[in-house]
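User: Earlier you gave me the apo prediction for this protein. Now I'd like the version with pyridoxal-5'-phosphate bound, so I can compare the two side by side. Same sequence as before, with the ligand SMILES added.
Assistant: Got it. Here's the input I'm using:
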Amino acid sequence: MASAADSNFTFASLPHPAPVPSDTRDQALANPGFGTLFSDHMVMIEWDAGIGWHDGRIGPREPIALDPATAVLHYAQEIFEGLKAYRLSDGSMALFRPEENARRFNRSAERLAMPEMPEDMFINACLELVKADKDWFPSVEGGSLYLRPFMFASEPFLGVRPAKQYKFLVIASPAGNYFKSGAPAVSIWVSSDYTRAAPGGTGAAKCGGNYAASLVPQAEAIERGHDQVVFLDAAEHKWIEELGGMNLFFVMDDGTIITPPLGGTILPGITRNSIITLAQEEGLTVREERYSLDQWRDDANSGKLVETFACGTAAVVTAVGRVASHDGEFTIGSGGPGQLTTKLREKLVGIQRGTVEDTHGWVKHID
Ligand SMILES: *Cc1c(COP(=O)(O)O)cnc(C)c1O
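And here is the structure of the complex with pyridoxal-5'-phosphate:
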């Protein structure tokens, strides 16, 4: 019986009848890709009105049978998180700021009228899964075990109201590099026909519905030969918000960095927050303020803007080299990753991997 170390909540450990054979697993782990390979186990916890969280267990990863009337299939009451487990340079395992994921998960839950989960229960669910699947770390450079905690309305009910039953799960996917090409800088398409989030909407929540709404503009970006889509604000179609799943930073030639302010329409990225701290430590001034598409183009053309990068857990820090919209294209700096982008990326990855000192207590070691 596996039990959570510092919580009263315990996870039953169900035996796995047929884990993936080690030679098949190791072969897959040599080229994991992103999001297509999964580990042997999963965590599942139930929530029922009147009972609360119960029946926590870790067992074989397997399909879940759902009644066709299950609420999430109709009204998309679903939220998720994404965090990585790393192997440190000394071979031990760690999570990066998982308490921030736990907090954000609860803020998303609140917005979607779902039950909140004690932070230590969320973190312990992640820890239990990593321990059970410790042999699933990819052997490739930059590899990690990507964890996907999520919760959905599991009550069979077609009325529109918050469900009275939910399932929380954590699955794990060994991950290599997020961008297929492993490209040094990405090209992005400015969506002017679609927006990601509006004031008062769900833009700050990590809910599946936000992603469903971003698929058409993302497909448009790909069709036009770009890697990602960047969204503008819903009210004026003028201010840069973020990519479909990453926050943006603009680096000026005077050592100032600008990033769009949080305020309900931008997802509060944990990577974003970490980068702000690291940039300030480098002596840079970080301004959380609105930055328009027109300004971005002008500053890139005049040379005032020297770098732009996107950041998020999956791809960590990625340089933006080229920007295209209905009004034409512009290149940022040399079109490749700039100095500061590279420096901040190396510092953050170094902390995550244990080669740079963790002065902020961001790394949670798994024993
Ligand atoms: C998850 C996500 C991010 C990045 O958040 P991290 O905590 O840094 O991984 C940025 N934008 C959107 C829309 C997201 O869903």
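For your comparison, keep in mind: The longest strand covers residues 165-175.
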